[in-house]
Structures are given as C-alpha cells and as structure tokens.
C-alpha cells in the first residue's frame, strides 16, 4: 500500500531491519515443504491479485453496459457487480483513511480518494468510481516496485554484513557472533566468506572482492600486514586476520549507519513539498465543498448532481500523492545511484548542496597523491649505485621515518651492511658508522654543519632530498616524492568539464612541492606549508565571497575542521580515516578523485529530475482542475491528472537507477 511508502519517507530514518530478509527477523514460513514456489513469488502474486480481480470485473461490467448484452444487468445487480469490483482495491484505502482520521489526520490522500469514489457511487457513476480506485491501487504497486528497486543497494550492503566470525580461542577456531570479537584476536576467513571485522592480514597475501564497499568490481589483492576491511569477500585461499577494530566500528558498520541515516537529512525541496501538501490538501477539500454548494446561489439552472460530480473530480485531481511520493523517491534514487558508484551522500540535502558548488578546494597528500613516498631518483657520485644504496639503507634501518621506509624498499644484491653507533641529529638526520666509515644521512643543514660541500645542482630540487656523506666526502643523494594517483589528471579535467570555475589546492606539504603538483595538474591556485587552522582560514575567506559555494576534499584528521566548515565536505578514503568519515558530508569510498565530478553530476541529475516531477505534477493538475471546475473534464481525466501523473513522475525518478555518469 501507498501508506507503507509514505511511512518509509516520513520516518526520521530508514529502518534497515525492515529491509532484511524475514528469516533474519526471526520470522518463518508455515509452508510444509511441498510448495516449490518461493515465498517472495507467492507474496508478489497476492499483492497484484486484488487489482487483477477488480480490473477483470470492471472491464466485464463496462463491456456489458456498452453492448447491452444482458438485459438483467440493471438496478441492484449492476450496483452489486461494481461494488464487488470496488471492494478489493477500495477497502484497503478506506481502512487507511479511517485509521488516519482516528489519529487526528483528516486530510490525507486516502480520505480524498475514499470520498471521491464513494461520491461517484452515490451519484450512480459506478464504473468511474471503480476505475479511479483501481488506477490508484495500480499506482501504489508501481510506487512500491520503484522503492524496492531504489533500495537495492541497501539490500546489497545488508547481504554482505557478516553474521559470524571464526575466532581463535582455546587452541581452535570457533564460530561466534562478530560483535563478541575483541581487538587483537585472530580470525580465520575461508574462500567465499565475508571478512567479519576490520584487521590486518596475517597470511602472506589475499585477494578480496570489495564491490559492496567501494563500488569497484576489480578484485583487490593485498600483502601481509595490509589492512583488510569488514564486508570484503575472500576470493583466494584460507586467510588469517588480526582484528584492529570492534564490529561496531568496522567499515561495513559505518557505511550501513550512514546509509541508514541518509534520508533523515531531507533536502529543502522535499521539506517544502511536505509542508505544502499539509496545507494544500485541506484547502482543496473546502474548495470542493464550495464547488458543490456555492453555485446554488449564482447559477439559475443549478443541478446538485452535476456540481457534486465536478467537486468529486476536483478532489481526485487535487490528491498530492504525485508530489509527496515522487520527490523523495527521486532523492532516494539519487542516494542509491551514488552508493552504487562508490559515493556515499549522508543525506538528500547534500545532493542539493553539491549542485550549488562552483569552487573546489582540495588537499594534496592522500587526495590527488597516493600519500606514499617512493624513490624518484638516485644520484651516486663516489660509489656504484648498489654500493651507495647499501650504505644509505644500513643507516635508514635505524629510522622509523616514512622516507626511511621508502628507501628500504630499494632492492640491493649482495650482503647487507650494518650500521653501528647511530645517533639522531635533531631536525637534520642521522650520523653513524658503516663498514668502519663515518656516514652522514640527512638534509643540507646536516652536511653544512659538518663541513661537507654540497653540489649546487641540489638547490633547484623541490622534492624531498636525502643527502649522503661517507668519510667526509659528499657521496650522492636520493630524491623522494609522493606519487600522483592514477586518475589525478582525469579528475581535474572532469571537475572542470562539470562546470566548476575554480580549483584550489591547500596542503600542509612544502609550498615548492605543492606548487609543482598544482602546475602539473593545471590547478588554478595553490598554497603549501599550511597548518589545519591555516586551511580553515583560507576556506573561510573564500566563503565570504557572495557567489562562492565551496566543496573541500580531504582525507585525514588534519582536514576535519575544513571538512566541517565548507559548504560540502568530501572525504577521500572513506574506509581509512575515521575522523574524516564522521565529519564529511560525502564519502568517496574508492579513494579516486575522479569520483568527485561524478558526485557533482549525480547531484545535478537528481535535482533536475525532482524539478521535472514538480513541474509535471503542478502543470497537469492546474490544467485539469480548471477544466474539472468548468465541467469540461470527467473522472477519466481526473484519474490521469492524479494517478497518471504520479506514475509518470515515478518512472522519471526511476531513470536515475539506469543513468551512467562518466
């Protein structure tokens, strides 16, 4: 029934438990095992059966009336025939109307449809009365089907929610509820099973299907020590994982919570239409009453039956269900489409806000770059490269700095060198002994303070540079750089193609590096060396410009203040940064900056469809209302103005589920 649909939207949030399969709610079928039809198929048939029965009865009655085939089909027999046709589709609506009245809500669409169709029976327009209620019921079926389609992505998430975990306890793996597993415990995941909790991989490698989390169908292969996310499906071999989070804090639990709460944040358009419908409905009821009785005082040939018929038409046309249903369904469809593309909007209001954005401000590290240091160039002067790197790696093994980790990824053949007497020179680097030689590893300040002459060619290098001195002689240097993400260039181009007029980069990294990356990506303006409060101040200054609507894209804890302050906060790496995911309005689950432009396009498509539906509903209703009041429209036109327009609006909203955004 349409009441279920309306209640879905009028709740503060979607109850995910209501979307679960019945077996998960403790319900069971009373089937004795001999019926081979699925309960879902039986339920669907039973849902359509009343409408089918009424349709057959209505067509048969109209055919008998038209051909006058049975002379006895008159009087009380004709009334009973159409009453039987009316009851299967009319009784549920009348019942809902009565429930609403008992709850103090008189002016609902159930009340309007009940009065209009019962009034049609009262004046002898039996076929029209049945037809109006029949098409209304068919409209409800279409609406339910549309909502079920839009809920598909949420159901997909529920399907991957793990319901058991194999945890190592008492020298064996035992099956337990994931909510009882503690941080630091070891769990086992077999082929085809879902990872129940976030953790780090203890096995040598693993391959996972993360489609439900990221929207990407390509398997994700990771190595020992890498992070594994709950909800991923193990594709290759039995693996073991050490848990790092409780179930309630896992990636899949956070995503489910965001989707569950998304509809609580309704758009301004949706809120306005709801308020409008509550005022609009009682107004048209009183107008219909006036249309019935007031002409008595102004029309010479007043006929009560004719004016009552016009009033009933007026009531059918004025039913606001096309607006009340199709608009939230449009936003719900947009949220579902975004989720299917690896983008989570935390509410319909942010779909609207995204359409207003004209300035995109982004962080650098982790947003357009991978946030992982790699060796870019090795320049050895006094040694062969491999020998030079052995000295450097021996020293860096004593450090925990991210740059040291990047250097240690270098593959050197032969025996490893060992560093001794290693000490850290604050803010400059390391000093130690390797193979009896004094080795300095660090920045230019370290070299200068020890009297080491540094080649002038290093002055123009903007990347991070590690200089090496061996026994008082400058031996060479290594440049370390963060890599651009594979789709970084494509992302900037697509953002511009989406109509964004200004793209800005704000980074905590060195200004020289920030400027270099901005130039490479063709970003309009950039500034580096910023603290979190500096980024916040820059965005606040932008917001002071009247026509500027800012979206900020970041990925970490340091970006949280700006994410909260911007018009739309977009977090990259939604499965990584807890603070970012809590603060942001939109989450890019795939960590791909190219999804930003797609989020903008989905927001615009959703808003466009919503306004198309508003224009369609109001336009048709106004025209047919005028015709109905003037006696130029019948119940059949009224059916189209109400149910027909609602169906067209719903079909239009469903288009979001089929759209592609490149």
Automatic annotation (TrEMBL):
Domain spans labelled P-type ATPase A: 161-260
Reaction equations catalysed: Zn(2+)(in) + ATP + H2O = Zn(2+)(out) + ADP + phosphate + H(+)
Pfam family, one: Hydrolase
SUPFAM superfamilies the record matches: Calcium ATPase, transduction domain A (SSF81653), Calcium ATPase, transmembrane domain M (SSF81665), HAD-like (SSF56784)
EC number, as in UniProt: 7.2.2.12
Transmembrane segments: 47-64, 76-94, 106-124, 130-147, 279-299, 311-332, 609-629, 635-654
Cellular compartments annotated: Cell membrane; Membrane
Family in the record: Belongs to the cation transport ATPase (P-type) (TC 3.A.3) family. Type IB subfamily.
NCBIfam families to which the protein is assigned, alphabetical: ATPase-IB2_Cd, ATPase-IB_hvy, ATPase_P-type
Protein name: P-type Zn(2+) transporter
Organism expressing this protein natively: Nonlabens spongiae
């Amino acid at each position: 029934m349409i009441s279920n649909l309306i209640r879905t939207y009028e709740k503060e949030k979607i109850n995910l438990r209501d979307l679960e399969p019945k077996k998960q709610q403790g319900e069971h079928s009373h089937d004795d095992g001999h019926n081979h039809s699925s309960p879902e198929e039986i339920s669907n048939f039973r849902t359509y059966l009343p409408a089918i029965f009424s349709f057959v009865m209505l067509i048969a009655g109209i055919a008998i009336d038209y051909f006058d085939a049975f002379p006895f089909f008159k009087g009380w027999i004709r009334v009973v025939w159409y009453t039987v046709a009316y009851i299967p589709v009319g009784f549920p609506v009348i019942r809902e109307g009565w429930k609403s009245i008992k709850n103090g809500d008189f002016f609902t669409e159930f009340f309007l449809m009940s009065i209009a169709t019962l009034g049609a029976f009262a004046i002898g327009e039996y076929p029209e009365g049945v037809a109006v209620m029949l098409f209304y019921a068919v409209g409800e079926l279409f609406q339910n089907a549309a909502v079920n389609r839009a809920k598909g992505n949420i159901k997909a998430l529920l399907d991957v929610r793990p319901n058991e975990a194999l945890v190592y306890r008492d020298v064996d793996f035992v099956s337990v509820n994931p909510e009882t597993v503690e941080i630091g415990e070891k769990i086992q995941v077999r082929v085809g099973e879902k990872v129940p909790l976030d953790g780090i991989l203890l096995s040598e490698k693993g391959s996972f299907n993360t489609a439900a989390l990221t929207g990407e169908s390509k398997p994700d292969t990771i190595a020992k020590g890498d992070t594994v996310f709950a909800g991923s499906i193990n594709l290759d071999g039995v693996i073991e994982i050490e848990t790092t989070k409780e179930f309630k804090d896992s990636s899949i639990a956070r995503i489910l919570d965001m989707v569950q709460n998304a509809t609580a944040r309704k758009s301004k358009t949706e809120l306005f239409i709801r308020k409008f419908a509550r005022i609009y409905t009682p107004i048209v009821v009183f107008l219909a009453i006036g249309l019935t009785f007031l002409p008595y005082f102004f029309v010479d040939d007043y006929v009560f039956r004719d004016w009552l018929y016009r009033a009933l038409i007026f009531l059918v046309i004025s039913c606001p269900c096309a607006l009340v249903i199709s608009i939230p369904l449009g936003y719900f469809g947009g949220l579902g489409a975004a989720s299917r593309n690896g983008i989570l909007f935390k509410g319909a209001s942010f779909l609207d806000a995204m359409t207003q954005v004209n300035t995109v401000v982004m962080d650098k590290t982790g947003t357009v770059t991978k946030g992982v240091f790699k060796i870019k160039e090795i320049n050895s002067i006094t040694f062969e490269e491999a020998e030079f790197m052995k000295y450097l790696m021996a020293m860096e093994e004593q450090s925990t700095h991210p740059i040291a980790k990047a250097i240690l990824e270098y593959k050197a053949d032969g025996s490893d060198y060992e560093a001794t007497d290693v000490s850290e020179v604050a803010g400059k680097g390391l000093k130690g002994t390797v193979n009896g030689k004094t080795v300095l590893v660090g920045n230019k300040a370290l070299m200068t303070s020890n009297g080491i002459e540094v080649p002038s060619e290093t002055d123009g290098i903007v990347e991070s540079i590690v200089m090496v001195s061996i026994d008082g002689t400058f031996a060479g240097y290594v440049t370390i750089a963060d890599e651009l993400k594979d789709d970084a260039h494509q992302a900037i181009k697509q953002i511009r193609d989406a109509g964004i007029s200004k793209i800005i980069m704000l980074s905590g990294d060195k200004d020289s590096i920030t400027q270099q990356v901005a130039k490479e990506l063709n970003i309009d303006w950039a500034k580096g060396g910023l603290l979190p409060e500096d980024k916040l101040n820059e965005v606040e200054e932008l917001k002071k410009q009247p026509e500027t609507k800012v979206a900020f894209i970041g990925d970490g804890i340091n970006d949280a203040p700006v994410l909260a302050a911007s018009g739309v906060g977009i977090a990259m790496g939604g499965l990584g940064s807890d603070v970012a995911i809590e603060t942001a309005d939109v989450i890019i689950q795939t960590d791909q900056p190219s999804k930003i432009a797609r989020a903008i396009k989905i927001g615009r498509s959703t808003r466009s469809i919503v306004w198309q539906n508003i224009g369609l509903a109001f336009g048709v209703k106004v025209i047919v209302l005028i015709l109905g009041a003037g006696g130029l429209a019948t119940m059949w036109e009224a059916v189209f103005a109400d149910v027909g327009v609602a169906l067209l609006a719903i079909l239009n909203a469903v288009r979001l589920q089929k759209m592609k955004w490149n």
